[in-house]
Amino acid sequence: MGDPFRVRITVRGYELDTQGHLNQAVYLQYGEHARWECLRAAGIAQDRLLAAGVGPVALEVNLKYLRELRGGDEVDVSCQFHWGEGKVFQIEQDYTLADGSPVARVSGVGGLLDLSTRRLVPDPRQRFRELATDPGPLGL
Fold first, then answer.
1. How far is CA 136 from the centre of its chain?
2. How many domains does the chain fold into?
3. How would you classify the pairing of strands 54-65 and 102-114?
4. 3-state class of 118 per DSSP?
5. Does a structural domain hold residue 64?
6. Which of 67, 136, 139 is nearest to 105 (CA)?
7. Contact in structure between 138 and 1 (CB atoms under 8 Å)
8. Do 10 and 74 meet the contact criterion of CB atoms below 8 Å apart?
9. Cα separation of 129 and 105, whole Å?
10. Residue 139 forms part of a structural domain
11. DSSP 8-state class, residue 7
């Protein structure tokens, strides 16, 4: 498997908390942004998912802070899917500064929800493979 998908984000002043560092909730928003960009790079835009009657869901998220981010910092947020058997998959996301210094790590469990039955699809890996025009960013 190659390098994980990455997106660079610049920390904006309005995202800071009263201590002057990135608000804790915004780390999760950055992770969400990177996941959607990864899907988009694979050729799976939101409208394509909706047309297929499915949508990704987060089932579990763990966030580990390693150092603070301040306004103007640039952070690379990775997105790497790990596929197994069954209805769920793992996602790992590393947040690093341009010099490679680790900032945070998000690990989670996701699934693909059938929007009509409101149940997880049995094989999300296969469904994503079918939807993707370039399955590489998803590790497929």
1. 15
2. 1
3. antiparallel
4. coil
5. yes
6. 67
7. no
8. yes
9. 26
10. no
11. E
Residue 60 tokens, joined: 């579990």
Tell me how long the chain is. 140
Range of the domain at 14: 5-134
Q: Is the pTM of this model over 0.85?
A: yes
Q: Which residue has the tokens 């910092």?
A: 73
- Residue appearing with tokens 């069954």: 86
Per-residue model confidence as pLDDT tens for the chain (140 residues) = 578 999 999 999 999 999 999 999 999 999 999 999 999 999 999 999 999 999 999 999 999 999 999 999 999 999 999 999 999 999 999 999 999 999 999 999 999 999 999 999 999 999 999 999 999 999 99
Residues 61, 28 contacting (CB under 8 angstroms): yes
What's the half-sphere exposure (Cβ side, CA atoms, 13 Å) at 121? 21
Strand pairing category for 74-83 and 5-10 = antiparallel
